[in-house]
Amino acid sequence: xxxxxxxxxxxxxxxxxxxxxxxxxxxxxxxxxxxxxxxxxxxxxxxxxxxxxxxxxxxxxxxxxxxxxxxxxxxxxxxxxxxxxxxxxxxxxxxxxxxxxxxxxxxxxxxxxxxxxxxxxxxxxxxxxxxxxxxxxxxxxxxxxxxxxxxxxxxxxxxxxxxxxxxxxxxxxxxxxxxxxxxxxxxxxxxxxxxxxxxxxxxxxxxxxxxxxxxxxxxxxxxxxxxxxxxxxxxxxxxxxxxxx
Length: 245
Ligand code: HEM
Known about the structure:
Blueprint: H1 8-32, H2 43-49, H3 60-90, H4 95-99, H5 103-116, E1 123-126, E2 131-133, E3 136-138, E4 143-146, H6 148-152, H7 168-171, H8 196-212, E5 214-216, E6 240-243
Antiparallel strand pairs: 1-4, 2-3, 5-6
Helix pairs in contact: 1-2, 1-3, 2-3, 3-5, 3-8, 5-8
Bound molecules: protoporphyrin IX containing FE.
Residues 69-70, 73-74, 76-77, 79-80, 119-120, 123, 181-183, 191-195, 198-199 line the site of protoporphyrin IX containing FE.
């Protein structure tokens, strides 16, 4: 919760990361010495057993970082789940198609949540070589910012960009570089998020489950501050009286 934000929240996040790395490195050593059994097929088991050199397994610290590289962004999908709940609360008409298990609509809903709501408003990168981009010259070692929120709300790309309308994706699935909440380009050759399909898959499944749940939304502060990165509803999204049908 503390990336791209200078100040105490960032420092807390760095300390938490370092604490978790130590904890996970210990856990990996315990799995390797068989003091602890990793659940079969779990990421913990895969990372603990992984060998990519003939010399043996990864050192425990590197394995811990790799384990957290999967766990941390998977937990981050909960930000989009909170935004999905927010969207269903503001535009309850979408519940019906999700409840009915309309798979194409669930995919469109997942894309629209990722397009409409801000998560990382921009991405930064350092140029490794001098380059010219659309007539602008950028020196080597310069910093480039990709305006993710701007692109995802660009009127030339999206009709009525500030309206939440999953249907826009039903007739036209997004082209590679249209929708870029998780980076642009090709994940095989660049740095675009390789977990994008996992994110969309989780959101499709969880949006359907959310739409099928019955719950009460108590009075709370659902405003979304735009100066916070990553942002979320001020109160999170609290529900009470949850009943599965
Ligand atoms: C809330 C959901 C997520 C968001 C918003 C997100 C966003 C991003 C962004 C913006 C980048 C950098 C792209 C760039 O520099 O061009 C990235 C990279 C990455 N993401 Fe995600 N991501 C999410 C979920 C996931 C999941 C579920 C996984 C895997 C389980 C994952 C794994 C990674 C990895 C390994 C990278 C580094 C790729 C590289 O540098 O080559 N992400 N993600």
